[in-house]
């Protein structure tokens, strides 16, 4: 009964828009706000990236990933990395910092391991979404990358809440479904996620696939099913329509084979 009360309080806070973000995400949120400003200056962005060492390191790592380094010319400075990636990819990197900080503040070893696994899953989904959007679903790959990075934001928030309220997630029937959707929606609002991206993420729960896959939601669906690391919060196998689409799909297999290096380097950069 106490766990039900705890979970009800978590959901109630979400409904009231009272989600609590760790103070460590402030630098990344400031960068997101700056990048959303159409009058944003390059020098201001570079200063903000340099002010957050982890973000600076990951920005350089992503700029050196095969998908963004076709000339095989290594980047060694934040300035060149920002110029190579552009503001849209930098926005995605800032969002990744926000999401990861929820996992980083978890103390319980079991929950921390789940948070680590959830980020590994997220990184692989992000890399695959970029490739699938570009080569299969004809979805803007930059948007697909960003959506994948934030699509489990609600899961990270729940794991951080469970660290404060032990046993909170022991019974999936209590937190999956409509309550999970409420938390996901409020996380999207708190992070100022654009509505089309937010809608695609919320629509993932229980979704089926009508081939051929098209659009952002289908891009995420396929990428999640293909990710080599599963989400620790997933309790159901992929919908039969999705499994049927993936099994024996020659075109998809060829795309994945041709893009294996790009996917590996991009996911590695996000995990760095």
Automatic annotation (TrEMBL):
Annotated HDOD domain residues: 21-207
Pfam families for the chain: HDOD (PF08668)
PROSITE patterns, sorted: HDOD (PS51833)
SUPFAM superfamilies referenced in this protein's UniProt entry, alphabetically: HD-domain/PDEase-like
InterPro entries (UniProt xref): HDOD (IPR013976), RNase_Y/CdgJ (IPR052340)
Name recorded for this polypeptide: HDOD domain-containing protein
Origin species: Duganella fentianensis
